[in-house]
């Protein structure tokens, strides 16, 4: 009788585990908000995630099969472009913005520095089609995938259909991006009371909460809003930010607040990658020039001594999540692409 | 066994009482140019002038088809998203499986894709982004696309290109059309493409390719070109 009860409760538990929004393949870290992404419309499976990962690392998405997503979003640099202020695409063309670090995307309601993209599924269309990035179009991508040796089977395994559509291609890429969750930094471990901050980090955390957290809100370290952080416009790039999308003067020079997680590895910084080092970023915030659309949160000057700047940096380095940066599950799928 | 009998009894009762309609209604769209059915790539002369115009592409979405009996909604097509492409005339005939207790006298539909669907992520069928009706640098469906040539346009190769889209507040280009129809299983709807394009001063305006005030103005004018052919 007892065994029977245990078996039945195990089955019930498993059933509930399957119907829960997150499922086994995605878990919301403790004390994090609910994800924005609707997993019910694109339920995660191992075979779809694998397909998405292969697509992410395959240059087949670009016009001449030379550039993959990973070119500008490499894992070891928090899925951004190391040493490139502006993203560098097909035929050595240079874009106008610094590629964003990819992590915790299930919690975002808009994408890109200006929020041009309203849904994670549609995100990949932008770099695929952009003249300076992959210079391809999704219709031609699906035709190339259909005639490839590996993809019809991968799509069949994932979607039970070897006919390759734009919808399934984009949903698979989303699945891979969704599992890129970074929640295991020293900061997270401190929050879970597994380790503790040093005195210096602790002081840095205090300064962070005083001066930075209103935009770089925990636990995602972004409030997902668009703000003008006071960096003057680069007259060569002439990037007006969010105004390009809303055509509203109040959005002039506003850009999406980026996450600070893995900041140690995601340099250079700002939408045009103008700062190479964390101290340059901090120095910017202690010397803000006023402008019309400057964030309300930056109206009061931020004053930090040089020791405090060092402490703040020490705290920012606790946001590094090595398990995320070196997790082989997120890496190049050599078992498929090098076959 | 008793419950089984009861079930059969109720099913029979339902069938006997069902005097409703279950029919295929064909909703056909006819793009018209200078009095006749539009032909792609044909040179049309603008009336009372020596200027000419030719249409090379005409693609648009018809969505959310609804049938009314006076004020009352009596049937709504499910997953009602249709891409009509003048290059494939079969796409201009939309068969709808109409099920209702009463017949209709008004049809309502949208030109374009509603805001909720624009926020819906990757979608399939006629909404698949491979259909060439989705903007990539900024999200959103192109609701209505028309391209061609006219000597009036000063653009390269005398081209004109109008991609009307936009789903957010002030830049929404979605149009809702409501037309009275007669009891019929074939609803034939004319679209006076000539009337619409003749109102554009191609000398001054030869392209729209993003959400804008201009796109909204041209989209609003689309709502006047539909009529039921008798």
Topology, please?
The complex is a heterodimer of chains A (339) and B (230).
Chain A: H1 2-19, H2 46-57, H3 69-72, H4 120-123, H5 125-129, H6 138-146, H7 151-159, H8 166-178, H9 186-191, H10 199-211, E1 226-227, H11 243-246, E2 255-256, H12 278-285, H13 306-317, H14 322-325, H15 334-337
Antiparallel strand pairs in A: 1-2
Helix pairs in contact in A: 2-7, 2-8, 10-13
Chain B: H1 2-17, E1 21-33, E2 36-37, E3 44-45, E4 52-69, E5 72-76, E6 81-85, E7 93-100, E8 106-111, H2 115-118, E9 142-150, E10 159-165, E11 175-180, E12 186-192, H3 193-198, E13 207-208, H4 213-222, E14 226-228
Parallel strand pairs in B: 1-12, 10-13
Antiparallel strand pairs in B: 1-2, 1-7, 3-4, 4-5, 4-6, 4-8, 4-9, 8-11, 9-10, 12-14
CATH class of the largest domain in chain A: Mainly Alpha
The main β sheet of chain B shows up as: 9 strands, mixed
Succession of helices and strands of chain B:
HEEEEEEEEHEEEEHEHE
Largest inter-chain interface? A-B, 27 and 20 residues
SS strand fraction of chain A: under 5%
Q: How many helices of chain B?
A: 4
Instruction: State Rg of chain B.
Output: 21 Å
Overall, the morphology of chain B is: elongated
Uncertain ranges of chain B: none
Determine the oligomeric state from the structure: heterodimer
User: What topology, given as strand order, has the largest sheet of chain A?
Assistant: 1-2
User: Roughly how many Å apart are the termini of chain B?
Assistant: 56 Å
Number of helices of chain A: 15
Based on CA atoms alone, the radius of gyration of chain A comes out at 22 Å
- In percent, how helical is the residue content of chain A? 25-40%
Query: Overall pLDDT of chain B, averaged?
Result: 92
Topology order of chain A in helix (H) and strand (E) letters: HHHHHHHHHHEHEHHHH
Helix content of chain B: 10-25%
Described by strand count, sense and barrel closure, the largest sheet of chain A is:
2 strands, antiparallel
């Amino acid at each position: 009788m007892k065994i029977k009860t245990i078996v039945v409760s195990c089955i019930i538990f498993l059933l509930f585990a399957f119907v829960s929004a997150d499922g086994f393949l995605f878990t919301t870290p403790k004390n994090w908000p609910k994800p924005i992404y609707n997993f019910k419309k694109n339920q995660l499976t191992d075979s779809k995630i694998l397909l998405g990962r292969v697509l992410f690392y395959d240059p087949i998405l670009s016009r001449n099969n030379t550039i993959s997503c990973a070119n500008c979003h490499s894992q070891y640099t928090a899925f951004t472009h190391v040493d490139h202020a502006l993203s560098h695409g097909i035929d050595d063309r240079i874009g106008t913005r610094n590629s964003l670090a990819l992590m915790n995307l299930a919690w975002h309601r808009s994408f890109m520095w200006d929020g041009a993209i309203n849904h994670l599924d549609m995100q990949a269309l932008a770099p695929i089609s952009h003249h300076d990035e992959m210079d391809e179009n999704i219709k031609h991508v699906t035709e190339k995938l259909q005639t490839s040796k590996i993809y019809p089977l991968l799509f069949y395994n994932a979607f039970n259909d070897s006919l390759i559509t734009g919808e399934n291609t984009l949903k698979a890429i989303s699945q891979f991006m969704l599992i890129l969750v970074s929640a295991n930094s020293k900061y997270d471990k401190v929050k879970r009371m597994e380790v503790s901050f040093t005195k210096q980090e602790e002081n840095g955390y205090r300064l962070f909460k005083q001066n930075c957290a209103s935009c770089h809100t925990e636990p995602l370290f972004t409030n997902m809003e668009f703000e003008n952080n006071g960096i003057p416009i680069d007259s060569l790039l002439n990037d007006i930010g969010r105004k390009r999308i809303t055509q509203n003067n109040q959005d002039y020079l506003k850009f999406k607040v980026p996450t600070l997680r893995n900041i140690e590895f995601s340099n250079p910084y700002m939408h045009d990658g103008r700062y190479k080092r964390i101290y340059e970023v901090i120095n910017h915030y202690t010397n803000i020039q006023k402008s019309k659309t400057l964030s309300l949160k930056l109206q009061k000057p931020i004053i930090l001594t040089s020791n405090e700047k060092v402490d703040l940096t020490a705290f920012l380095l606790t946001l590094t999540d090595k398990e995320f940066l070196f997790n082989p599950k997120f890496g190049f799928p050599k078992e498929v692409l090098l076959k | 066994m008793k419950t089984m009998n009861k079930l059969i009894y109720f099913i029979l009762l339902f069938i006997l009482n069902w005097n409703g309609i279950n029919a295929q209604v064909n909703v056909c769209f006819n793009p018209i140019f200078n009095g006749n059915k539009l032909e792609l790539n044909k040179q049309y002369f603008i009336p009372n002038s020596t200027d000419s115009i030719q249409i090379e592409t005409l693609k648009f979405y018809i969505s959310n088809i609804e049938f009314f009996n006076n004020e009352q909604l009596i049937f709504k097509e499910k997953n009602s998203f249709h891409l009509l492409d003048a290059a494939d005339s079969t796409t201009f005939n939309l068969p709808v499986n109409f099920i209702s207790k009463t017949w209709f006298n008004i049809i309502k539909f949208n030109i374009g894709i509603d805001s909720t669907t624009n926020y819906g992520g990757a979608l399939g069928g006629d909404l698949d982004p491979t259909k060439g009706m989705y903007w990539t640098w900024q999200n959103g469906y192109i609701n209505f696309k028309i391209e061609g040539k006219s000597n009036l346009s000063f653009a390269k190769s005398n081209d004109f290109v109008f991609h009307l889209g936009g789903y957010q507040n002030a830049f929404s280009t979605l149009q809702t059309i409501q037309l009275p129809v007669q009891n019929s299983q074939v609803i034939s709807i004319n679209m006076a493409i000539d009337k619409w394009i003749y109102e554009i001063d191609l000398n001054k305006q030869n392209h729209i390719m993003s959400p804008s005030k201009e796109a909204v103005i041209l989209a609003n004018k689309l709502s006047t070109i539909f009529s039921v052919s008798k």
